[in-house]
Amino acid sequence: MIGIRADGNGRIGLGHVMRCLSVADKIKALGEQVIFFVAEESPLRLIQERGYEALCLSSNWNCLEEETGLLLQKLMEHEVSLLLVDSYFVTEMYLQALKKQVKVAYLDDVNAFPYPVDMLINYSVYAFDVPYVKKEGCEYLLGTAYAPLREQFERDKLPPKAEQDCILVLSGGTDPFGVAEEVPARILEQKELSDYRVAVVLGAEVTPAARLADNPRVTFYKAVTDMAGLMRKATFGVSAGGSSLYELCACQVPTVTYSFADNQFGNVEKFHSLQIMPYAGDLRKHGEQVFDRLVKQLADFHRESQKNRLTAMGQLVDGKGALRIAERLISLAHNTCV
Q1: Rounded CA gap, 129 and 202, in Å?
Q2: CA distances from 14 to 42, 47, 114 (A)
């Protein structure tokens, strides 16, 4: 049995759970059983609807050390041989305690401290720039080849590219800076972009802007299940610096990025330096200027050839990262006991 420890709620979103579900689907397809362990009930339904057993620890998602004893007990009861952990709130003591009982793999993108684990996974575009202190006996899965995207983003399963003069705007789960309203409104005002429709993907807690609700050029989407299909219809994209950037790469959508959280800097800055996705700035510091830059860059996209950018995107992400992770996790789980 392989265990997965991840959380999702209104504060941290569902990104950790979603990428772990992608890995879990591949583990299951390869014939292994998976069980999830979560702090709160919030993500239980999502996990269970995907066909996985999920156990709620009724613990604090931002203080993992408090759950150590209970988690170790549950790992033993369910005969878990390997645990994949995906949380920013791990501590050295927490991981060390787990490692005494099971093999431990950790999904990372911040290099907070030397992680005492058996496998370290960082699928970020900047992963090879992170100064990890390599430890003997630890396997490192680094780079975009390991981006754990949903199966729909695998290259051989993508729908045909069918650009429809559409700009796709991804506003994030809570959209604290009003991207879902400001960006479409400014696109509508830009003469060079007058031939483009705007598709806006809203988070569960975001309401469509009233002033745009009846505009025939703007369509709002929620709870999108076929995101790959939507992306493959987009000519250009606008996105914050999360995992959506890797999905946009897989779908080869030229994208301009923005940020509003510190943990997005690594992605947006590296994609910018590689000249793949230009970065418009941090909304927390320069809101108006960022919105202006986003639309200006979209107009530049309209005028320029995107051939080189599309080639680079396709080379970075092929959508098979979840399978690669699953294969290595199973191999590690079967490679002797702790």
Answers
A1: 32
A2: 9, 11, 26
pTM: 0.92
The alpha-carbon radius of gyration of the chain (Å, integer) is 20
How do residues 317-333 score in pLDDT, each as one tens digit?
A: 999 999 999 999 999 99
For domain 2-149+319-334, the CATH architecture is: 3-Layer(aba) Sandwich (3.40)
Fold topology of 153-316: Rossmann fold (3.40.50)
DSSP assigned state of 143 = S
Question: CA nearest 114: which of 136, 144, 129?
Answer: 136
Give DSSP secondary structure letters for 165-223.
Answer: SEEEEE--SS-TT-HHHHHHHHHHH-GGGTT-EEEEEEPTTPPPPGGGTT-TTEEEEES
What letter represents residue 315's amino acid? Q
DSSP track, 161-177: P---SEEEEE--SS-TT
- pLDDT tens-place string over residues 285-323: 998 999 999 999 999 999 999 999 999 999 999 999 999
Domain boundaries of the chain, sorted by first residue: 2-149+319-334, 153-316
- The residues, any chain, with a CB within 8 Å of residue 156's CB and separated by 6 or more, are none
**What are the distances in angstroms from CA 286 to CA 173, 211, 258, 291?**
21, 24, 11, 9
For residue 336, pLDDT beyond 60? no
pLDDT attached to residue 338? 42
pLDDT in tens, 80-92: 999 999 999 999 9
pLDDT of residue 337: 44
Closest by Cα among 225, 184, 187, 221 to 206: 221
Q: What is the pLDDT of residues 134-161, one digit of tens each?
A: 999 999 999 999 999 999 999 999 999 8
Question: Length of the chain in residues, anyone?
Answer: 338
Q: What is the DSSP string of 263-275?
A: GGHHHHHHHHHTT
Find out whether 23 and 84 touch, Cβ atoms under 8 Å.
Answer: yes
CA 195 to chain centre: 31
The percentage of the chain sitting over the pLDDT mark of 90, rounded to a whole number, equals 88
Domains 2-149+319-334 and 153-316 fall in the same CATH topology: yes
